[in-house]
Each structure stands twice: as C-alpha cells, then as structure tokens.
Amino acid sequence: MTRHLTRLSLLVAAASVLVPFYAIVAASLRPQDELSPGLGWPSDPQWHNYADAWTTGGFAELMRSSLIIACGVVPIALILATLAGYGLSTMRLAAKGPIFALLMLGLALPYEAIVIPLYYDLKTVGLLNTYWAVILPLIGAFMPFGVFWMRNHFESLPPELTEAAAMDGASSGQILRKILLPTARPALTTLGLLYFMWAWNQFLLALILIQDPSMRTAPSGLGKFIQAYGRNIPLLSAGTVIVIVPVVILYLFFQRHFVKGILQGAVK
C-alpha cells in the first residue's frame, strides 16, 4: 500500500510540472488570433511564433544580459561561499557562532526590503544602470545559502582528512585545494546550478536598478513583453518558452550532478 501511495505521489508531482509546461508549449504553437488556446496539440503548429516573439520582444539582447549577469554572479559567489564555508567549518574562530548566525539571518531578508536603499546607494557610487548594479547585490543575497551549503558539506567530511594533511605540513590553502575541493564537486555543481537559475530568473532587481530595457534580464523583459502583447496568448507563450528553455537545458545537462549534490549530505 505504501509503495503504491509513493508512486501515486510521484506521478502527481511529475504531472504538476509537465502538464503546465506542455500547455505553454501547445499554446505557443496556436494561431496568434486564437484568444483561448486549449490543451490539445494544434493540428497546424505555428512555429513562426517563436521567431516573431524573439524579434518583437528583443530576446537576443535580454538573454545576453541574463547570461552576463549569471556568469558574473556564479564564479564570484562560488569562490566566496567556498572560502567562508571552509573557514566556518574547519577553522577555530572566536566569533564563529555569531558570524554564522548573522549570515543565516540573511536567508530571511526579502529583496523588497533592500531594493530601495540599494537604488540610492548604487546611484551614489555610480553603478546604477550597469550590470554590476545587479551582480553585486545578488552575490551578497546568495551568500547566506551558499555559506550554509558549503559549511554543511565540509562538516560532513571525516575530520581525519584535514588532520592527516595538517600533520604532513599542509597549509590551510593546500588542504582546501588538494584535499577538500576534489570531494566538493557535486556540492559545487549543485550550488553553481542553483546560483545560475536564481540569477537568470532575477526580475525585481533588474527591473529597478537597470533603466536601459536592453540591459535587463530575460524575465524582466518578459514582463514588459506581456504588457505590450497581453492579448496575444500564443506569442506570450512562445516568449515564456524562450526564457525558460536555457535553464531547463542546463538542468537536464547537469541532472546527475544536481541530484548527487542534493543527496550527498543525506548519504553521508
């Protein structure tokens, strides 16, 4: 009985993800004058809807901006989260507990509470309307989770690894590079993928801190696209698919590493 309930739950969870995605793809292939597309697959798919959405929505520039922001956030955030997680898990620090508690408070801090102060601060230093206006706040916003993630990974490793390396004369940097980082590939891959998805899907910060429409992220550009073509459901669906496909492809490519990283702590 339990096995059947588990399978049923998995089927329901899979359907809740796949059915909406199928509905969006099917709607994107309908004629543009059709106001209420159904769930059925169209008999004459209008593949040109994707070309129309790509051109009219300016998604080439928007996706380039999203890629620049994501590629700026991910490596810096990974390096800082790894160093902080390593320090908080292996080093003897007097204020280790308060520092970690302060970082964890950042998990409860919403973007809406900081976006207005960020606007004026970035305007003062001259970074408003640049990619750095989104990259730097996202790095800071992602740090609490990243430090928590990497700290848990390093603490799950046997302490004998670092102790043996220290007895052999290895420095802290050598222990991190040669001993701990090779074991952290699944954790780093999962964290990097999460960072990329969060940065790619950023909407609010890009909408407020970047005034140039061509420099905004794809999701924020999609919001403007919806305002302009609110009644053209097939065109809107095509634009939505264009925005989410890169993240889906990236997830499918790193799926095994992602699942391995999620389950690594539980297995150990």
Q: What can you tell me about this protein's structure?
A:
With 268 residues, this protein is mainly α. It folds into two domains: 1-46, no CATH class; 58-267, MetI-like (MetI-like fold, Orthogonal Bundle), CATH 1.10.3720.10. It contains 13 helices and no strands. The chain has helices spanning 2-28, 48-56, 59-90, 96-105, 111-125, 132-156, 159-167, 172-180, 185-200, 204-209, 218-228, 233-253, 255-267. α6 packs antiparallel against α9 and α11 packs antiparallel against α12 (233-253). The radius of gyration is 22 Å and the shape is globular. The protein starts with a helix and ends with a helix. The model has no long low-confidence stretch (mean pLDDT 84).
pLDDT < 50 stretches: none
Overall geometry comes to globular
Number of domains: 2
Q: What is the terminal-to-terminal distance?
A: 29 Å
What is the CATH class of the largest domain? Mainly Alpha
Approximate strand percentage: under 5%
Output the CATH topology of the largest domain: MetI-like fold
What CATH architecture label of the largest domain applies? Orthogonal Bundle
- Averaged pLDDT, please? 84
The major pleated sheet works out as: none
Helix/strand order, N-terminal first: HHHHHHHHHHHHH
Helical content band: over 70%
Radius of gyration: 22 Å
Helical run tally: 13
CATH superfamily of the largest domain: MetI-like
Question: How would you briefly describe this protein structure?
Answer:
The protein has 268 residues and is mainly α. The protein is 76% helix and 0% strand.
